[in-house]
Every structure is written in structure tokens, then in C-alpha cells.
Amino acid sequence: EDIDAVGEERSETPAIREGSYFVGRNTALMQTVDGAPFTISVRKGRSSDGIPDKHARIIRKLIPIRDAVRDVLKAQELDQPWKPAQVKLRVAWSNFVRAFGPINTTVVSTSEDAETGEVREVHRRPNLQPFLDDPDCWLVASIEDYDVETNTARPGPIFTERVIAPPAAPVITSAADALAVVLNERGHVDVDHIAELLHAD
């Protein structure tokens, strides 16, 4: 089995955020540009058109991680079960690490200025660089605890813990508060529910 195909899942609904990468229905790598889906061309052979094949493979493996992170956060925000999304996240992250190493892999190089003797350090992140256009790039980067000295990463808290507090219960001290809560929850006026919230008949 091709290791690059492991864990790649088609995005069922195209990402709607500007700059987001997704896999189209035809399995093509896509990106939202000016609000519309745009097919990313991948270099073939010696051609210079498109992105390198390795970059496309990295992006394809980061998409399910990004989507799982979003799912975990959304479920926690709405106080819904989030463990299944954490399982998907762990699988997607493990597949990525197995294929490319940690998301935050950092290559440090130094150069010395011949005239001044000043030493400059340059940090490159080859696994994040292809994904920089995605608006959730740094969200994806934040999920692992990375050690630059050993180039190893451990899953961060989002893999096993609640990272967003549950929504606070609304404080209702007046009919206006109750009305606001009912409109937010149901989208229309429900007098009976307003009365329940006010503990009045």
C-alpha cells in the first residue's frame, strides 16, 4: 500500500475559508481562491509548472489533520461529544508523522558574514511551508509538542483533553434576557420556553 495514500480522506464539503486547501470530488487538490475552488497543479517530470509533488503529498496529509482539529474544537465549543474527532485527529497525525516526520520539523542552518563575523541562524519548516497559505496553518502547527533539539514531537493536549471550556449557562434576570436566550436557541419567540426560563407561568 502506498504510504502517501494512507490516511488521505476526501473532504466531503469543500472548505469555505479563503485560502483553505481541500480535496475535490475528483480527488484533485484544490484551494479556495477569491471564494471559488481552484485546482492546484502538481509538477510532472521536469516541468516547472505547479507545486512539487512532495508539497502536494504534505498538503493532502495535513488536510485531514486540520479538519479533525476543527471538528474537535467545534464539538467542544458546542459541548457535544468530541472523543471521536480526537480519534480521527490521532490517526491523521500519526499517518503524517509516519510519512514526513513531525509537522513542526525545523531545519536550522547557520551562516557567518565574512565581513562582520556575525552568525545568522535560519529556521526552515519544510512540513509547514507548503501549507502556509491555509488560514489554519498555525492552528495545525500548534497541536504537537515539538522538540527542535531531537526533532521529535508528542501529541499536544487537544488529542486527549478538553481545550475549550464548555459554554457558560446564560444568566437570566429579566424577560429580555429570557427572550434573547430563546431567540438564540430556537430562532423564534416561544412564550412557553421564556416562561420556563423565568420560572414563571
Automatic annotation (TrEMBL):
It comes from Mesorhizobium tamadayense. This is Lactate dehydrogenase. It comes from the Bacteria.
